[in-house]
Design brief:
Two copies of one chain form a homodimer.
Chain A: E1 2-6, H1 7-18, E2 32-38, E3 41-47, E4 51-58, E5 60-61, E6 64-65, E7 67-71, E8 73-78, H2 79-88, E9 93-98, E10 103-108, E11 111-116, E12 133-138, H3 139-149, E13 164-170, E14 173-179, E15 183-190, E16 201-204, H4 205-214, E17 221-226, E18 230-234, E19 238-243, E20 262-267, H5 268-280, E21 289-296, E22 299-306, E23 310-317, E24 320-323, E25 327-331, H6 332-342, E26 346-351, E27 358-362, E28 368-372
Antiparallel strand pairs in A: 1-7, 1-9, 2-3, 2-8, 3-4, 4-19, 5-6, 9-10, 10-11, 12-17, 13-14, 13-16, 14-15, 15-28, 17-18, 18-19, 20-24, 20-26, 21-22, 21-25, 22-23, 26-27, 27-28
Helix pairs in contact in A: 1-2, 3-4, 5-6
Chain lengths: 378, 378
């Protein structure tokens, strides 16, 4: 293997695939990044066995030569070491050459590195996706869906399937749901190109978080391939593979109340900030609990009380109040997560009594629903 | 106590004094910040017993009223809680009022906090400095002196006095020295106003690092007061107290060689980057050791070799070479620290053989001297 490449392009690719490489892996070859040079360009692969990321740097882009491959071939190089070396090379012109017995020479300016590589044929193969269910989303919409749901996955491994976000097709909607059994986040997206044969899957929350970091913030097309074991997200530059979680995802639709006794409509940003302040005095105390009380039909009060530290009260105007009086306590963190997902819009909150789950929605958009279970405080 | 204050000024003051507050303190009252409101303004104090920082917000500045004190008084409030609350208050107008039994009300907009405070009379007094040796430095020069020396203090507590920077007056110079017995950093500053009666002191490296964060990057005058137990740095806004280290600081002047067998002059930034690259392959291996070899009278080579990982070589041009051939090994970290302190200037390095300490100086400025002990590699 021998090629010349521009450092900046190499560094971008290495940074992408490095996100899949774990320093905790027990499989020695997975501490490395695989380089495959062909006449078409350079493919880089990183993996922790659960997630695999592949970046492709084409030989030519927009008429500019990014890589000049003199001799095709493959090698695996220590991921973190290789990344640091590429980052610190003195010039933008880099030559990489593999000699006998996997010794890899990296030259740039007057720097001359010799790294001991590993046999690329021992690196795990990436699976074939040609027979999978397939549909397409824009990168920015996909990142938005992830942001609105992934925070609600369970952090506990006691029911592994709840550490993932459930994706399923219902009618013409893609429905994405996450729950840790104390709160739930649901996002629906109407899509024309959804496969009818797609079964519900649970994508690990960790995978979705990493995927978000790799995808651009624009309308780049992301092709999504699904089968029973794995999901693949593919753009022109990057291919992201994740295993799926095993087990049946619970039916969460029954959790969502069908009728409500109290409805308020108010500014979500004002509420978020008031809860953030109230949570300061609730920290570490009874699971970070704050209280919401109806004061009158134009005002609610957010309060928190911690006998050793002090207390705080704050009144917030509501635009609409309908239904019964209410006093309800909940986790400040769950409420802030939900309000951040809805993102500062005008928010509708609907309650079914102080001990029943309540839901939050945007006034402008019915696609996002957040559900929170209250906390008993007496 | 009762006063109105602008949040931004309060927050700046709290941020400064918070740097002295340690969450690890065993003295409960030191988890708090002391507020003293007088008709002149508000004094804030934070301390971890070793370092004490006081910030003063005047009642009026440049004709603008920053604080309006209705009732003078004092209180101690939980430092981190108070900081978070101030940071998150909804408006820039803040009212703070202490009622009976230390309950402190903080109001801003519609937020209403009640914090349980502590008795300010139990907070440790700050010492009097009126009889101490005194001189003055500009803040930016003081920060520069700290930056050029403090990294070389010992991280080990086996000889506590070496965890500090030694300051002493010699002729008309302030001489600042730090050493961990493997390397040494020395900075001299010629000053007219130095006290003649000042004895050498050892200022904890930790205190100097914190002081740097509090001082502005300009020519603000810093009045420095010294006695046998403590040092005080005072500007119009902030007073910084630090205890001094006990014990006699060793005489380090004998460590510096008086004659040299090899002298090179070269670009410090090029050398720094080459050593940074070479250190990648030396990491974790034999104390991060790299080698410098004279190639010819215009070139040196920086190299590193790690049998399991690989090796790297890089040649660097030298502007001047005088004396004997040389091949010497040293800690990449120590060399990079020293070159960063000299800061990218043209650098002179003088050697007295492969097993003797060598020194680095700037070509342009004799005030900084860095000394490093080589590492035996055979």
């Amino acid at each position: 293997m021998k090629f010349d490449i521009q450092r900046d392009h190499l560094l971008n690719g290495v940074n992408d695939v490095l996100k899949a490489v774990s320093s905790k892996t027990t499989i020695p070859i997975l501490t490395g990044i695989k380089l495959d040079a062909t006449k078409d360009g350079l493919a880089l692969t990183g993996s922790d066995a659960d997630i695999t990321i592949q970046a492709f740097i084409p030989a030519e882009k927009d008429g500019e030569e990014l890589i000049h491959v003199t001799e095709p071939g493959s090698i695996v190089l220590q991921a973190r070491m290789f990344n640091e070396i590429v980052r610190k090379l003195p010039t933008n012109d880099v030559e990489i050459e593999v000699a006998d017995s996997y010794e890899t020479r990296i030259r740039s300016g007057k720097s001359d590195f010799h790294l001991i590589g590993l046999d690329a044929s021992e690196y795990p193969m990436t699976p074939d996706v040609t027979n999978d269910s397939q549909f397409t989303l824009a990168a920015d919409l996909l990142k938005q869906i992830i942001r609105e749901t992934v925070f609600a996955v369970s952090a506990s491994e006691s029911r592994p399937v709840l550490t993932g976000v459930n994706w399923q097709v219902k009618d013409k909607d893609l429905v994405c749901v996450a729950t840790d059994s104390h709160r739930l986040a649901r996002r629906k997206v109407a899509l024309d190109n959804l496969p009818t044969n797609m079964t519900g899957v649970a994508i690990p929350g960790k995978s979705l978080n990493e995927l978000s970091k790799v995808l651009p913030d624009d309308q780049t097309s992301v092709d999504i391939y699904l089968n029973a074991q794995q999901v693949v997200f593919k753009t022109n530059d990057v291919v992201f593979y994740s295993r799926l979680l095993e087990g049946n995802y619970p039916d969460t639709s029954r959790l969502i109340p069908e009728e409500y006794q109290t409805t308020i409509k108010l500014n979500g940003k004002e509420l978020l900030q008031a809860i953030d302040r109230a949570s300061l005095l609730a920290r570490g105390d009874r699971n970070n609990v704050v209280r919401l009380s109806i004061v009158d039909n134009q005002t609610i009060e957010i309060s928190s009380n911690s006998p050793e530290v002090g207390k705080v009260e704050e009144q917030i105007p509501v635009e609409v109040f309908e239904g019964d009086d209410l006093r309800i306590s909940f986790s400040a963190k769950f409420m802030m997560d939900a309000l951040k997902a809805i993102d500062g819009q005008e928010v509708v909150i609907q309650f079914t009594g102080a001990m029943r789950p309540f839901i939050l929605r945007s006034v402008h958009d019915d696609a996002i629903l957040q559900l929170i279970l209250p906390v008993r405080t007496y």
